[in-house]
Design a protein that fits this description.
By secondary structure, the protein is an all-alpha fold. It is about 70% helix and about 0% strand. The chain has one domain. Helix 6 crosses helix 8.
Length: about 280
């Protein structure tokens, strides 16, 4: 323990190797970081501004590319699956937009701490701010794709009812999982740089395994196993209310369970290894 410079002076930096107080320091990091959410939001906007500097459409290029993909895949897979185009296009549009958001979140989560290496090494900023920065950045990007859903719904004559408000809790669950992923994957990928490639390959696998391009009804009785897929569960909490089908109580229960597990695992890792992040990035 470092001695005080004066009997009346409060210690500026005291650390006891025998009592690291990991839990207290981690919880203090979380509370301080959440209080500085405006800083994280400002950094997220700065990231997007720098990413699309000099671009004419900016983030709306993602909206345009997604619109082209929805149109092409909608015409193709509605023919292959022999489904009416007016019922398949809204399903495909919501599915792709939610999946692209989840996939982008997972990809950014792997580098949430590595990209902030310079700030971490130079400023005593809570690590929570960097995780929130990743979350806000993807929320802003996802918001640019919302007009595409409105256009597809208007063309296909889909009018969501009051049940569409249930998509808001689904979005909150995705946001909580995004924050947990930014903490957990950010720490793991900072320590083991190859994990990011493994995660990217796993996301490609889950894309085809999840009902994004195909409807769950095509599985017949085997769709009862779909709740074991956490990505399907999270997507369905948003897609179901918007399409008027509404997820079942089992889907909501699984979504809450998976979210609680992700947050618990992220908190456990953060408490145990928070003090090593500066040495890993």
């Amino acid at each position: 323990m470092l001695p005080q410079t004066s009997p009346d002076a409060a210690p500026l930096y005291v650390r006891d190797a025998g009592d690291p107080r990991r839990r207290e320091r981690a919880l203090d990091d979380l509370s301080t970081g959440f209080r500085r959410w405006r800083l994280a939001a400002s950094l997220a906007r700065l990231d997007i501004r720098n990413r699309y500097r000099g671009s004419v459409l900016g983030p709306f290029w993602l909206t345009l590319s997604t619109a082209i993909m929805v149109t092409g895949l909608g015409l193709l897979y509605s023919t292959l699956f022999k489904l009416p185009l007016v019922s398949y296009m809204p399903f495909l549009a919501v599915s792709l937009l939610v999946w692209n958001t989840v996939n982008q979140i997972v990809g950014d989560a792997c580098t949430s701490l590595i990209q902030s290496e310079g700030i971490i090494r130079q400023m005593p900023l809570p690590y929570t701010v960097h995780a929130l920065r990743c979350v806000f950045r993807n929320i802003i990007i996802a918001a640019h794709n919302l007009p595409l859903i409105i256009v597809v719904f208007a063309i296909c004559g889909v009018l969501p009812g009051p049940a569409a408000l249930l998509a808001i809790p689904g979005l909150l669950l995705i946001t909580l999982n995004a924050f947990a992923a930014a903490i957990l994957l950010g720490m793991i990928c900072a320590r083991f740089r190859d994990i990011g490639q493994i995660v990217a390959s796993a996301m490609q696998f889950f894309f085809f395994l999840s009902p994004v391009l195909w409807k769950p009804e095509l599985l017949g009785t085997r769709q009862a196993w779909l709740p074991l897929n956490p990505f399907f569960v999270l997507i369905e909490t948003v897609r179901g209310p918007l399409l008027g089908t509404g997820p079942s109580a089992l889907i909501w229960a699984c979504a809450i369970l998976y979210t609680a597990a992700a947050c618990g695992m992220a908190l456990a890792f953060f408490i145990r290894f928070r003090g090593r992040i500066a040495f890993w990035v």
